[in-house]
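sorry for the late reply, my laptop died twice this morning and i had to redo everyting from scratch. anyway the thing you sent over, i finally got around to it. pasting the sequence first so we're on the same page, its 64 residues, then the predicted structure underneath. double check i copied it right bc i was rushing
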Amino acid sequence: MSGEQLSTKELNKDSLTNPYSKKVDINHLLYKVRLEKNKEKKENYMLVGLVVAALAVTGIISSF
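ok and here's the structure:
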């Protein structure tokens, strides 16, 4: 999550367990971390794709 920290209120709000319980489901937290990593990977691939496309367009234009 790139430097962001979750407060206990946010963890309890997002958790699948009883909100009044002090227990946190580690599997649910790991699932959220995996989702965030996948989202970051997709964003990185999109950025690299845009850079490559920009370079290709620039190369095509400069070759004329």
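Residues 8-62 form one domain.
thats about all i looked at so far, will dig more tmrw
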